[in-house]
């Protein structure tokens, strides 16, 4: 009798254990099929769900996802290249949907903010847009250059820009169009130089951007091949000129901290993800 009870208890335990195990395995799979962000409500018994968090974490002192978070939070600054061990991680991040989802979160917030504004409608309310990795994506270039794991090459990047083939970042274009509907005027403020103006205008138009108030580019490259000053100084200086001219910067969006640091930043700033390069 005692043996029968023990056997029954053992069977109950095994059944419970089996269903718990099944839940651990099945739940994340169902979420993946739904196409939604993978946020597993249980600690997976086997391994992290995303390859980006698993193998790479074990390979180096700092996992690549932690490195990327450090970059986005502006704790990791002044870096020249993506760490070599993270090339695959960044590539998967950029191409695998995660980047687009992160960008959509930023733009959803920006649209909600813009729609909440009590706008004066006086034609003086503007929104500052960066161009590279904000309005246009240079992913086709960076995919061929190690997703930022190889040192920036100004010559080859300029050749790519000269093609005028960069696709729009669809999330940013969605914000851009909504702002036009709301009566907020877009202003492009970019580290691209004046000699790239024509092709930049062509590229923006090809990708569905129109109706901007201004396109502000840096002066052409100096004789020494270098531009003077930091991106923060240049961009905040240009924003100051806009405010001095009577415009109100209701929003400012870019992929670099140097797009959104420096007075006047704008009433609200939005930082898009960019783990491929750093501009200080
Ligand atoms: Mg940019």
TrEMBL record:
Please indicate if the UniProt record lists Ubl conjugation as a keyword.
no
Report whether Flavoprotein shows up as a keyword of the record.
no
Q: Which Pfam families match?
A: Acid_phosphat_B
User: What UniProt keywords are attached to this protein's entry?
Assistant: Glycoprotein, Signal, Storage protein
GO molecular function ontology, one term from the record: acid phosphatase activity
- Signal peptide range: 1-20
- List the NCBIfam families: plant-AP (TIGR01675)
**Annotated family:** Belongs to the APS1/VSP family.
**What role does this protein play?**
May function as somatic storage protein during early seedling development.
Give the matching PANTHER family.
Answer: ACID PHOSPHATASE-LIKE PROTEIN, VEGETATIVE STORAGE PROTEIN 1-RELATED
Q: What is this protein called?
A: Acid phosphatase
This chain's source organism reads: Oryza nivara
Q: What is the lineage of its organism?
A: Eukaryota, Viridiplantae, Streptophyta, Embryophyta, Tracheophyta
